[in-house]
Amino acid sequence: xxxxxxxxxxxxxxxxxxSLASADTFSDLISNLNSLMKKSKPATGNIPExxxxxxxxxxxxxxxxxxxxxxxxxxxxxxxSYLISxxxxxxxxxxxxxxxxxxxxxxxxxxxxxVSTLKSIVYSVDKExxxxxxxxEYLNASLTKINKDFVLxxxxxxxxxxxxYESLREYAYTSPEIINAVVSKATNKxxxxxxxxxxxPEGRKTKLDFTVNNVDESNKDGYAxxxxxxxxxxxxxxxxxxYYSNDDKYIEQKSGxxxxxxxxxxxxxxxxxxxxxxYLAVKEAAK
Length: 287
Prior knowledge:
Blueprint: H1 15-21, H2 26-36, E1 43-46, H3 54-61, E2 68-76, E3 81-91, E4 97-109, E5 112-124, E6 136-137, H4 140-157, H5 162-172, H6 176-185, H7 189-198, E7 205-217, E8 225-232, E9 238-245, E10 258-270, E11 277-283
Parallel strand pairs: 9-11
Antiparallel strand pairs: 1-5, 2-3, 3-4, 4-5, 5-6, 7-8, 7-10, 8-9, 10-11
């Protein structure tokens, strides 16, 4: 895959995002942002025939960066509309630590996609990354330039091989972040359930990063170990994951360690309101 954009962020840096993420639906989320922020001129790119923007968005939001992190705040599954939150850190004048918070809206329509940066604001921050000032918003001309840069970057990602794209697409439809974004911001629960029925995550390849809680004997046939852990979401929620494996290396795994795994999604459960994931089961893929 092509070289990634340079970012940086930590979970505590999502304080601004969290209040927005509490909006009931995706349209509420966008309305809240538009009422607070200036609008930039969208930039438009092309989607190759037979492909979609969601795997590209997943590739961007799931990547690890040296100077930040990106998260998916919401998805409007009817209109193929996506909202990304991004926080990055950098050194400003006199080596002052700075933080940039941005919200990027992506819309797919008729073989094209558009990018609009709804807000981008820069703060000077303390050692913990918390703002020390009210911040300065980017001018519309700067936001328009950011939009064009994103389009060029996403179009570059589309140049990957068909095999790379299909693998990314598989991971996108089993991504807990994407599934949560769909069910939490759908205009009604039936539409979210229909999306899951049409794009069932079970039985597909997945990648997960989680904090280990415990390692125990497996209660699932064909697997020796069960590694239980917690995944934390961008809007402050968390849920349990059980990863089943035969790899002896997990015998030495310590609680509190952060690990990355790949496997086959075996099951997903939701809360009673069908607004967020509560549990995932993942099986190590056969070697």
